[in-house]
């Protein structure tokens, strides 16, 4: 299997959302005023933001999530501390059984996905969110909090992880000690 991922322009052409001529024109424009190709295509009215989001999601092999049309579910928001969401730029949007759906601007950020998986003990599906609407949705979902409160939340999470890890190590050590002692 090839690790080659199509470039955005190639993806848009292969999905027949733009023509090769439109791609060439946008790339020439990009040479004159450096900006992301997607932004140029949207600004020129060649593709809509929604089509661009869907194409990016297809390129990354994930689903797209329109935060303006499908706001986060309260149960999903309650599963992840706001400080953790802000620190990793994620927004829990839905729960389906033991699956937490996580809207992200960068759904390939495995550190963020792992942090949420560890904090929630749930399976996580990352979906692509529109970058322009993400910050607004995050603010609307969690409001604003004092920085110290956010740091306290992160510290408490870290201490919990350390405590859990220490408890596991101590249990393993005791089990090992019991297993190696001779029976008298």
Write the layout of secondary structure elements.
Layout: H1 8-14, H2 20-32, H3 37-43, H4 49-60, E1 64-65, H5 74-79, H6 82-88, E2 90-96, E3 99-104, H7 110-120, E4 123-129, H8 131-142, H9 147-180
Parallel strand pairs: 1-4, 3-4
Antiparallel strand pairs: 2-3
Structural write-up:
The protein is α/β, with parallel strands linked by helices. The chain folds into 2 domains: 8-61; 62-175, 2-Layer Sandwich (GMP Synthetase, Chain A, domain 3), CATH 3.30.300.160. Helix content is 59%, strand content 12%. The chain has 9 helices and 4 strands. The protein has helices at 8-14, 20-32, 37-43, 49-60, 74-79, 82-88, 110-120, 131-142, 147-180; strands at residues 64-65, 90-96, 99-104, 123-129. The protein has a 4-stranded mixed sheet with strand order 1-4-3-2. Strand 2 (90-96) and strand 3 (99-104) form a beta hairpin.
Give a nutshell description of this structure.
The protein has 184 residues and is α/β, with parallel strands linked by helices. The protein has two domains: 8-61; 62-175, Type II secretion system, protein E, N-terminal domain (GMP Synthetase, Chain A, domain 3, 2-Layer Sandwich). It has helices at 8-14, 20-32, 37-43, 49-60, 74-79, 82-88, 110-120, 131-142, 147-180; strands at residues 64-65, 90-96, 99-104, 123-129.
What number of structural domains do the residues give? 2
Q: Level of helix content?
A: 55-70%
Strand order of the largest sheet: 1-4-3-2
Average pLDDT reading: 86
Could you name the CATH homologous superfamily of the largest domain? Answer: Type II secretion system, protein E, N-terminal domain
What kind of sheet is the major sheet? 4 strands, mixed
- Rg over alpha carbons: 22 Å
CATH class of the largest domain: Alpha Beta
What is the H-and-E element order? HHHHEHHEEHEHH
CATH architecture of the largest domain: 2-Layer Sandwich
Strand content: 5-15%
Overall geometry = elongated
Structural class from helices and strands?
Answer: alpha/beta
| Low-pLDDT segments | none
The CATH topology of the largest domain is given as: GMP Synthetase, Chain A, domain 3
**SS element count, helices:** 9
């Amino acid at each position: 299997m090839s690790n080659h991922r199509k470039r955005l322009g190639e993806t848009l052409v292969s999905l027949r959302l733009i023509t090769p001529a439109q791609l060439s024109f946008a790339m020439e424009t990009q040479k004159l005023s450096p900006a992301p190709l997607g932004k140029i295509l949207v600004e020129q009215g060649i593709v809509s933001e929604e089509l661009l989001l869907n194409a990016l999601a297809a390129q990354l092999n994930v689903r797209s999530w329109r935060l303006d049309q499908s706001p986060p579910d309260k149960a999903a928001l309650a599963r992840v501390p706001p400080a953790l969401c802000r620190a990793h730029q994620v927004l829990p949007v839905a729960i389906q059984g033991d699956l937490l759906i996580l809207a992200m601007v960068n759904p390939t950020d495995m550190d963020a996905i792992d942090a949420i998986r560890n904090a929630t003990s749930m399976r996580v599906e990352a979906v692509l969110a529109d970058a322009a609407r993400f910050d607004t949705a995050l603010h609307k979902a969690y409001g604003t909090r004092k920085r110290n409160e956010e740091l306290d939340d992160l510290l408490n999470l870290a201490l919990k992880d350390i405590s859990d890890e220490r408890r596991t190590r101590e249990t393993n050590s005791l089990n090992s000690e019991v297993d190696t002692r001779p029976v008298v």
